[in-house]
Amino acid sequence: MKKESIITLSKAASGQQVKLISIDAGRGLTHRLAELGLTPGVELSVVQADRSGPVLVSVRGSRIALGRGMAHKLKIEPIG
Hints:
The protein is α+β, with helices and mostly antiparallel strands.
């Protein structure tokens, strides 16, 4: 894993395949995201990532909409 390839989910592009590296949030939000299937190491697909609205991701067979602030707390690495 190269340090320079790690970005936040809020900077990802639509259609991108990424791996969740870490979550920079408090215990409550980290637990809530884990309940949704967003745990470090999981691979996800960015379905929609408009610069103004929420980020829509597909993870473990489900689609989840994350607000921009929440997406900014997720550190990801592009796959491939």
